[in-house]
């Protein structure tokens, strides 16, 4: 990883490098996530659909952007794999989970946010922006389809949202 | 959510309903980005008014502030000025208690060069680290904040390479990358203490929010910018073994109408490693509380 170009005294950089290390040394069956080599503020992830739900068996890819003020400000999440629960290419509104942005706290991490995101998938969207309420059958079909081809990740440059 | 809110609204009169429903729609459209934009706008507004930690000012400036205000407050400031010489204001960004405590504590060490106190607090800080680990916090989420506080503590002791002057301490306290991290350190300490002794703190917390200690820490302790109450102060004082005196400048007066300035000493409860003698220690941190805000006070 190109760690040298970052100021290791910067609190965000220090923290992110710690999280990378922790993520690598404690792998989970439910998700994988690592930053791009060119930019440690831009991560990619893959989560598996929660068991005993219509997402079971699915593998969903997405992007995470960490703000310069991380961990004081929350990361933002976006799914790339069609899943029937969240719109793709759209920032997921975490206000509706327990992770309200104004209550974001540094004791949370990419790991805890991903765990929350997985737990959040089978919940009812209640009309929240960026949420989808596809029928179970369609979600199941998307879960099967998700294994065929991982979405290609276009450009390493963070796009405007 | 919306349905639930709608039910509440419907129980009110027709004309109010239409106004309130439209307000609720507006709120529902607030997305994370908007909320955070609004938050940083408020922060920027506050930042223009005052640095995180201001300059030391004579208490007269406080009197000037209330010149055309409440006579009770004017009288209380007079009483206050018999014992206190100066005030140092902190930014009203919801972190003012922790920020005041940070500066007052480090300034005390810098001026007293009390190495015994530094050794003592380090024992408690180490205890707090263990507490957080035993509560299930991932070490990487708090270790940087701990390291940064300990670094500040070393630097206010003279005679080592990293030693800093009073002026540098002021500068660091105004440097967001240091100041906010130390505030966060205190928030972790406070949260750990509350959770460790949740049975003791539960009734106090319930008096404030009607929720559990766990919920309170999540919504009112660990997020930056959440204001502190007496529960935070008690927990921080207990955890670190540091007594804190708070003077209350409000409009209250006793039955006979005589004016005095109430104060409360937060004395560390026994239980943490070095707290046993804390009763004997006179508070060296004095803060002024005005409803909603804490500043630092300097005795004569």
TrEMBL record, chain A:
Keyword tRNA processing among UniProt keywords: no
Source superkingdom: Eukaryota
Keywords for this protein: Ligase
Entries under InterPro entries matching the protein: Ub_conjugating_enzyme (IPR050113), UBC (IPR000608), UBQ-conjugating_enzyme/RWD (IPR016135)
A Pfam entry, by short name: UQ_con
Molecular function via GO: ligase activity
Domain UBC core: 11-161
The keyword Transmembrane is annotated on this UniProt entry: no
Record PANTHER family: UBIQUITIN-CONJUGATING ENZYME E2
Name by which UniProt lists this protein: Ubiquitin-protein ligase
Automatic annotation (TrEMBL), chain B:
Gene Ontology cellular-component terms listed: nucleus
Top-rank taxon: Eukaryota
Annotated EC: 3.4.19.12
Gene source species: Handroanthus impetiginosus
Family annotation (SUPFAM superfamilies): Cysteine proteinases
Gene Ontology biological-process entries: protein K48-linked deubiquitination; proteolysis
Primary enzyme class: hydrolase
One matching Pfam family: Peptidase_C65
DNA repair listed as a keyword: no
Protein family according to the UniProt entry: Belongs to the peptidase C65 family.
Catalyses which reaction(s): Thiol-dependent hydrolysis of ester, thioester, amide, peptide and isopeptide bonds formed by the C-terminal Gly of ubiquitin (a 76-residue protein attached to proteins as an intracellular targeting signal)
CDD domains: AtOTU1-like
Ranges of residues in domain OTU: 85-300
Keywords per UniProt: Hydrolase, Protease, Thiol protease, Ubl conjugation pathway
Keyword Ion transport tagged: no
Annotated catalytic residues: 93, 96 (nucleophile), 293
Sites annotated Interacts with free ubiquitin: 248, 250, 289, 294
Protein name (database record): Ubiquitin thioesterase
An annotated Gene Ontology molecular function: cysteine-type deubiquitinase activity
Chain segments annotated as transmembrane: none
């Amino acid at each position: 990883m190109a760690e040298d170009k970052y100021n290791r005294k910067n609190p965000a950089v220090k923290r992110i490098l710690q999280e990378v290390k922790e993520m690598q040394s404690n792998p989970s069956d439910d998700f994988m996530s690592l930053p791009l080599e060119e930019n440690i503020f831009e991560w990619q992830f893959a989560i598996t659909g929660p068991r005993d739900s219509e997402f079971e068996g699915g593998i969903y890819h997405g992007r995470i952007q960490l703000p310069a003020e991380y961990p004081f400000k929350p990361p933002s999440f976006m799914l790339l794999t069609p899943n029937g629960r969240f719109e793709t290419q759209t920032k997921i509104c975490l206000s509706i989970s327990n992770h309200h942005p104004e209550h974001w706290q540094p004791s949370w991490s990419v790991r805890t946010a991903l765990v929350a995101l997985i737990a959040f998938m089978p919940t009812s969207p209640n009309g929240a922006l960026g949420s989808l309420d596809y029928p179970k059958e369609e979600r199941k079909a998307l879960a099967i389809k998700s294994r065929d081809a991982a979405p290609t990740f276009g450009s390493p440059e963070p796009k405007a949202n | 959510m919306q349905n639930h809110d709608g039910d509440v609204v419907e129980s009110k009169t027709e004309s109010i309903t239409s106004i309130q429903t439209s307000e609720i729609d507006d709120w529902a459209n607030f997305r994370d980005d908007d909320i955070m934009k609004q938050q940083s706008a408020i922060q920027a507004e506050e930042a223009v008014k005052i640095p995180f930690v201001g300059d030391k000012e004579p208490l007269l400036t406080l009197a000037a502030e209330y010149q055309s205000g409440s006579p009770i407050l004017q009288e209380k400031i007079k009483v206050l000025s018999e014992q206190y010489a100066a005030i140092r204001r902190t930014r009203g960004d919801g972190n003012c208690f922790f920020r005041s405590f940070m500066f007052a504590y480090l300034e005390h060490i810098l001026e007293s060069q009390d190495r015994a106190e530094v050794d003592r607090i380090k024992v408690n800080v180490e205890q707090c680290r263990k507490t957080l680990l035993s509560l299930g916090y991932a070490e990487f989420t708090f270790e940087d904040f701990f390291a940064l506080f300990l670094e500040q503590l070393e630097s206010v002791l003279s005679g080592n390479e990293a030693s800093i002057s009073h002026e540098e301490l002021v500068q660091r306290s105004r440097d967001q990358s240091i100041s906010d991290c130390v505030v966060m350190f205190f928030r972790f300490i406070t949260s750990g203490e509350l959770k460790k002794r949740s049975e003791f703190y539960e009734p106090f917390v319930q008096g404030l929010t009607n929720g559990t200690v766990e919920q309170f820490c999540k919504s009112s302790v660990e997020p930056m910018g959440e204001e502190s109450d007496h529960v935070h102060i008690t927990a921080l004082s207990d955890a670190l073994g540091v007594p804190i005196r708070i003077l209350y400048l409000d409009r209250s007066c006793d039955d006979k109408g005589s004016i005095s300035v109430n104060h409360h000493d937060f004395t560390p409860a026994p239980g943490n490693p070095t707290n046993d003698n804390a009763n004997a220690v006179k508070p060296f941190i004095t803060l002024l509380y005005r409803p909603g805000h804490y500043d630092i006070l300097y005795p004569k």
